[in-house]
Amino acid sequence: MNKRFFVVLLVFALLMSVVAVLNAQEEPIRIGVVTSETGSQARFGEAQLRGYELALAAINDAGGVMDRPLELVIMDDTSEPETAQLMVERLITEEEVPVIIGSYSSSATLPAVGVANDYEVPMLVPTAATNAITEQGYEWVFRINAPSSVYASTMIDALVDITMDGLENLAVIYENTSFGSNTAEAVLAYADELGIEVVASEAYEAGSPDYRPVLTRVKDADPQVIFFVSYLADATLLMQQVEELDINVDAYVAGGAGFSLPDFPANAGHNAEFTLSVTQWTPDVAWPGATDFTDAFVEAYEIEPQYHSAETYAALFVVADAIERAGTADDPEAIRDALRETDMDTIFGPIKFDDTGQNEHPMLVTQVLQGKFITVWPPDAAAMPPIYPVPTWEEREDYEYPEMEMGEGESS
């Protein structure tokens, strides 16, 4: 009787062990995400969430990570820095996630990564570009996108190339946010390094109904090129008022942000035409999987993806890869160490972090032509050469575009 009892007990214990293992295998691995679901940056947060959604489906459909599905614990930072900090702390202390991705804006992300670093939980930045994020000596912070200084240097390098070393001066107009100021500072420093004169530098408060005083001062400085650092609403109004004031320069260029969104040519209409902008990614880029991602995105959302969606799509794959290599979803330090050793190709290009946690990401330049974003620089990635100098506002009505294969180089 006792022998039979012990056999039954052993079998029961083995069954419970198997059940426990199966439950552990099926239990989701929870990843923290901070983005802007509400507030002034909600438009960008929506783009980020769509990238996460497609990546999550792709990873889980392929079997998840360590035979377990991923689950996203999403927190809304309400587009506010203070809220972003609180949400990171909540993800760590209440939700106990082992790794966090986020947020959108530089203003929200910079203080948020400090919280993650203090708690010693790895945080991967997919979009925020202010240089300071990876300049604090943080050991738990990583970023896949290029920083704001690269926005500036890429655009100026493109202009120098396009003008065949004929870029003599420029003016800078920028929003006085962390991203805007940081990018403008980088423009000024790089222009000085190359001997390019900055004839005007104007900061503005976001959301103003009238930028004509700023634009008038810039017009009086007679720049060869105007370099904008602006989000969507301001980018649209600025270009409308540039036309109203009949400000004609050789090129209107931008450090990404609002000038690189699909809504910009839609909202600004003909005022967006011929603007040049740096961008982190385009649907026509030749990085592996980019075309398949674009097709899936269009099928799901009926619009082409912007780079913010590509960034978060790639970011989730980077985190999944790190957890798989770490062999654990419960040890933030092991995941951090695996992130340090990341070396992978993604739809967003190659990902490999330096000692500061920064990925060396190449950027592209697009031009709005006939309402479409066309990749025009660097030459080896371009669908066609840029139009430079751009026609004046008076010349545009009768302007004849060069022949181009619009379907080959469309991007947004």
Task: Give a description of the structure.
This protein is α/β, with parallel strands linked by helices and 412 residues long. The chain folds into two domains: 30-146 and 286-347, Rossmann fold (3-Layer(aba) Sandwich); 149-279 and 363-411, Rossmann fold (3-Layer(aba) Sandwich). It is built from 13 helices and 15 strands. It has helices at residues 2-26, 42-61, 81-93, 106-119, 148-162, 178-194, 212-221, 232-244, 263-268, 290-301, 307-326, 332-340, 406-409, and strands at residues 29-35, 70-76, 100-102, 123-125, 141-143, 169-175, 197-204, 225-229, 251-254, 276-279, 344-346, 349-351, 364-369, 372-377, 410-411. The strands form three sheets. It has an eight-stranded mixed beta sheet, with helices on both faces. Strands 2-1-3-4-5 form a five-stranded parallel beta sheet, with helices on both faces. Strands 11-12 form a two-stranded antiparallel ribbon.
